[in-house]
Write a structure and sequence with these properties.
15 helices; binds NADP nicotinamide-adenine-dinucleotide phosphate; Adenylate-forming_Reductase; 7-stranded parallel sheet; two-stranded parallel sheet; 420 residues; NAD(P)-binding protein; phosphoprotein; NAD(P)-bd_dom_sf
């Protein structure tokens, strides 16, 4: 996640763009006039929790929706999503969402979910005004998970999701029972942190966030906006600064992450790369469970920043060794692996999809033992979340499940070694 290739001039340009977006969308002092009373002490009876969760058609959101509706204290979950451009209904999309347990609207728990199509960037969220008022009157916790998850776009491509977040915060501070706004952020807000600093579980300076990923920059703006709202209105804010979410412990991990691209390319190359770093990925179950815990657990003060990463990381090389053992592939140095990959023509992108993340891999190779991923403090998560405290260490059984899933879904084609 290091930004070694940004020049000083580029860093300054990025900083100016981020500051101007933040001040344009959420200027200092801009929240207070809309606020109703939001004492951090606002209590919600434990059996009367009403959640508004955004982005439930996605990977984390669909798993979190299942966990929320299975929670005895949760009475209702408004699952708020944008409309589909292809015209598919929301219930159809929710039924096909990648949660570890499929959504069943007819089950006792499933009946707690109310699927809502809305555009949070539009006035009145472009939804039925009666339903909007029902949500405003009843909601106790807002969990903002929906985001454009695209790592190659510049920060200005995120202005619509940031404007949507602003509108949702305005909604939260006018909702009389709303006790908390939880924002699913990302460790890429620390993409440019100096290597001798461990990222704290607090707001981080803008310089830590400036880098190649407009995505991480946008998440920093989202964090800053929410913290501004919290200090101006007393709205309780929880920032779940999340690390890499790996596949489910039951196997499914939709291909698309850089890891899946590297594994597939390794099969074509005949070897896996050594990657000298730590691996603090959380499984889908841990990420979703932590999000639910951080939403429902009592917290002190107005704002909490929590790193949702594995409290007991393993070396990334151990993970690739587990993959190598299963797939029967040796490990070679990342630089040799990159050399071999670059011999493959770019047009063979199907066999060598790591071409899509080549710039990230080159930076990874260039930083060497300094490490690519930021060092992150991990204290608040285990303190506040039982799921994080009890998260299982990443082990062969889990990694094997992902590889078997990718073989079953024909993402990769490889026969596992018979003894495994
Ligand atoms: N996956 C990770 O490793 C990881 C790591 C750190 C943080 N996070 C954060 O976790 C959250 C969920 O990520 P995910 O991996 O579950 O992503 P995902 O599978 O791509 O799901 C994203 C969700 O957000 C919705 N969405 C996307 N763009 C939107 C837009 N412009 N307006 C409204 N809704 C939009 C999607 O709706 P459609 O179904 O309509 O596309 C979907 O419901 C995100 O905030 C992400 O930044 C993820």
């Amino acid at each position: 996640m290091s930004s070694v290739s940004l020049s000083t001039a580029e860093l300054m340009q990025h900083r100016a763009a981020m500051e101007s977006m933040l001040d344009d969308i959420a200027p200092v002092g801009g929240f207070s006039h809309t606020a109703v009373s939001h004492g951090a002490s606002l209590e919600v009876p434990s059996n009367d929790v009403v959640i508004l969760l955004t982005g439930t058609t996605g990977f984390l959101g669909s798993a979190a929706l299942q966990d929320f509706i299975n929670c005895p204290s949760v009475k209702r979950v408004y699952a708020l999503n944008r409309s589909s451009r292809s015209g598919r209904s929301l219930s159809e999309r929710q039924l096909g969402a990648p949660a570890n347990t499929p959504f069943d609207p007819t089950s006792q728990a499933g009946k707690k979910a109310v699927l809502v199509e809305a555009d949070i960037t539009a006035e009145g969220f472009s939804m039925d005004p009666g339903l909007l008022e029902e949500i405003r009157e009843n909601v106790t916790h807002i969990v903002h998970n929906a985001w454009r998850v695209h790592l190659a776009l510049p920060v200005n491509a995120f202005s619509d999701v940031l404007r949507g977040m602003r509108t949702l915060i305005d909604f939260a501070i006018t909702a009389p029972r709303c006790n908390r706004f939880v924002f699913v952020s990302s460790i890429s807000t620390c993409q440019n942190i100096p290597t001798d600093i461990i990222a704290p579980e607090t707001a981080v300076p803008i310089d830590f966030a400036i880098g190649r990923m407009g995505y991480g920059e946008s998440k920093w703006i989202g964090e800053a906006m929410l913290l501004r709202a919290a200090s101006e209105t007393g709205l309780k804010a929880v920032i779940a600064r999340t690390g890499q979410i790996a596949g489910s412990e039951a196997g499914p991990w939709k291909p698309g992450s850089w890891v899946s691209l590297v594994i597939k390319t390794s099969i074509a190359i005949g070897s896996l790369p050594t990657m000298n770093d730590h691996c603090n990925w959380v499984t889908l179950e841990t990420a979703a469970g932590a999000l639910v815990d951080l939403t429902l657990v009592p917290v002190e003060g107005t704002a909490e920043v929590v790193h949702v990463i594995h409290p007991r990381p393993i070396p990334l090389d151990s993970l690739f060794e587990m993959c190598g053992n299963f797939l029967g592939l040796p490990l070679i140095s990342l630089s040799s692996w990159l050399d071999r990959m670059q011999l493959a023509p770019q047009r063979q992108i199907d066999a060598y999809p790591a071409h899509k993340v080549i710039s990230m891999l080159k930076v990874f190779a260039a930083v060497g033992t300094r490490g690519y991923f930021p060092e992150m403090m991990v204290e608040r998560g285990p303190a506040l979340s039982k799921t994080m405290r009890e998260a299982e260490e990443l082990k062969l059984a889990i990694v094997r499940g992902w590889l078997q899933y990718w073989i079953k879904t024909r993402w990769i084609q490889s026969k596992p070694r018979p003894q495994l």
